[in-house]
């Protein structure tokens, strides 16, 4: 099948738009006509080769669209179904069978290696193979080959162009609160970084009943939006020592903290801003090999630090929950989104990482 895709050809390069050919779905695969795809920070870190996805590659891992065709053995979706595409997992290992799909041992090869596990790719350009299968979808294209596991069926009347970011960034922020940290009603939380992940966490913290929600960032506009979405306090890290301010605001430290920045010094501040029994989640994806340090005696007194991938979510369960929350007015993630056409993808990149105009860019196909 002919398709149109955005391709990263070299480390740090711009996206190049070109015609490609996409295979029919194999056993267990689904061909999706992509309606839209969110742009996530992980797309840009792979562009910069923080993770070793081989290039040239079609990226994109927050796709949504309509099922066009299914391969043999697919039973959970059919042609005509609207779907959100999330991360890929094996579905058969102990982690997956226990409902911890985000911690599948095959997560890295299934999502980052640019190939099916047999080494093949479903995309070619002018007869040459192009790396694909990014998060099991490579949805910066008008058509995507996905696996059945990473397809989440949604209602026929769903606003499908809006929903793609639920597959990764927004799921990560909300799930880190609702599935991983699980703060008690009345508790306090400090969220470092007010991008799409951090702001999703703010909304989830409000929905979970946190009474003090502190957002930390260097962008005044994003801090203002954080207040609108539920933050009770904001800290401009350009002018204020966030750790000291949080300890003072909470009378000794927050119950919970979350770092979305992947900056070691910020993670240290997040941990140190909690009280003795506080818990911190690290969700930012740093370059492979990045290390950080903590004061061992500070940790000794009951503090906890945990990593969270994809919001510790089972996408087929959690994404419909987020859609229901949005419909009820409890999770207005649409306020984060700015739409672009696919051929504006490089403008969307600039607005996301340079000017900060876009918090969650969504590319319409």
Question: Care to describe what's here?
Answer:
This protein has 365 residues and is an alpha/beta fold. The chain has two domains: 2-167 and 332-364, Quinone Oxidoreductase, Chain A, domain 1; 173-309, Rossmann fold (3-Layer(aba) Sandwich). Helix content is 28%, strand content 27%. The chain is built from twelve helices and 18 strands. The strands form three sheets. Strands 3, 5, 6, 9, 10, 17 and 18 form a seven-stranded mixed beta sheet that branches. Strands 13-12-11-14-15-16 form a six-stranded parallel beta sheet, with helices on both faces. A five-stranded antiparallel beta sheet has the order 4-1-2-7-8, with no helix packed on it. A hairpin with a 6-residue loop joins β1 (2-8) and β2 (15-22). α5 (169-181) runs parallel beside α6 (196-208). The longest helix is centred in the middle third of the chain and has 13 residues, at 169-181. It is globular, with a radius of gyration of 20 Å. The relative contact order is 0.15.
Features:
single chain, 365 residues, alpha/beta, Quinone Oxidoreductase, Chain A, domain 1, 2 domains, 7-stranded mixed beta sheet, 12 helices
